[in-house]
Design brief:
The protein is α/β, with parallel strands linked by helices. It has one domain: Rossmann fold (3-Layer(aba) Sandwich), CATH 3.40.50.720. It is built from nine helices and seven strands, in the order E-H-E-H-E-H-E-H-E-H-H-E-H-H-H-E. The protein has helices spanning about 20-30, 45-60, 80-90, 115-140, 155, 165-185, 200-205, 210-215, 225-235; strands at about 10-15, 35-40, 65-70, 95-100, 145-150, 190-195, 250. Strands 3-2-1-4-5-6-7 form a seven-stranded parallel β-sheet, with helices on both faces. Helix 1 runs parallel beside helix 2 and helix 3 runs parallel beside helix 4 (about 115-140). It starts with 9 loop residues before the first strand and ends in a 6-residue tail after the last strand. The structure holds NADP nicotinamide-adenine-dinucleotide phosphate (NAP). NADP nicotinamide-adenine-dinucleotide phosphate (NAP) binds near residues 15, 73, 123 and 150.
């Protein structure tokens, strides 16, 4: 129980309506972070999530936590600026940005349309770039900040049927390392988390046979839970990670060993 009720500053989390993003929001709320969450669903659904997150923060002793919601499709041209404006309007110090929102549009490359390729690039790579570009000036002025980009093991090792997604997630690693170099002098760190196979809507459609084959390759013998990713993200956002930048942290149960 935190007796001081002092929050740890504002973290922007994209795609916090479900899956890994929601787990990150829940975990950060319970650990004293103010949150600015992006969502695309109805106001009522967001209000229910917000009440749940505020209750988690209160239970953990952070009665003053602020949970702010911004309705934003990250493919919209003005999304970055609208989110940056909401951060400024909050008056809260900007502790971090978690670029979590992402999509898949799977198919073999020879049959993949240009639209199918570019749609994934737009959401999974251009979206994070535009949001970094919009929020970095705030972090640079503060001379502190943390960016965590949610990449994927697929961006490191590739995956048949996911040329678009692998290209976007590999691109996100390149973006992470380049930004890390550009902003290190301002004490801003930029890292990526590369989840393996995590139980969310994104992996729910996997046929049973494919799921069993994947589990066979995971040293820890199970798919990951969204909370496994949330814990790694919270570490990279924390002061304990202040000497880590430009890194890719695989959270995949030993998929690659
Ligand atoms: P998910 O359950 O499908 O959730 C995706 C989230 O992204 C949702 O909140 C969704 O909002 C949001 N989103 C998608 N397109 C958006 C857009 N154009 N604008 C704004 N928000 C948008 O996915 P997940 O499994 O939690 O994945 C989260 C991240 O982890 C993704 O970047 C994914 O690539 C990465 N990842 C996942 C796995 C895995 O095994 N699950 C593995 C490696 C990496 P709506 O609810 O409005 O659709």
């Amino acid at each position: 129980m935190n007796t001081e009720n002092r929050t740890r500053g504002l973290v922007v989390v994209t795609g916090a309506s479900r899956g890994i993003g929601l787990a990150i929001a829940r975990d950060l709320a319970a650990h004293g972070y103010d949150l600015l969450l992006t969502h695309r669903d109805a106001a009522q659904a967001q209000a229910e999530r917000q009440a749940d997150l505020e209750a988690r923060a209160r239970e953990a002793g952070f009665a003053d936590s602020k949970i702010i919601a911004v309705h934003a499709d990250l493919t919209a041209d003005d999304a970055g600026e609208r989110i940056a404006a909401a951060v400024r309007a909050s008056g809260l110090p900007l502790t971090g940005l978690v670029n979590n929102a992402g999509i898949t549009r799977d198919g073999l490359a020879v049959r993949m349309s240009r639209e199918q390729f570019e749609e994934v690039l737009t959401v999974d790579l251009t979206g994070p770039f535009l949001l970094c570009r919009a929020l970095l000036p705030i972090m640079m002025r503060q001379r502190r900040g943390r960016i965590v980009n949610i990449s994927s093991v697929v961006g490191i090792y590739g995956n048949a049927g996911q040329a678009n997604y692998a290209a976007a997630k590999a691109g996100l690693i390149g973006l992470t390392r380049s930004l890390a170099r550009e902003v290190a002098s301002r004490s801003i760190t930029v890292n990526a988390v590369a989840p393996g196979f995590i139980e969310t809507d994104m992996t729910a459609a996997m046929p049973e046979k494919a799921r069993a084959a994947v589990i066979d390759r995971i040293a820890l013998g199970r798919l990951g839970q969204p909370e496994d990713i949330a814990h790694a993200v919270r570490f990279l956002l924390s002061d304990d990670a202040s000497y880590i930048t430009g890194q890719v942290l695989e959270v995949a149960g030993g998929l690659s060993i």
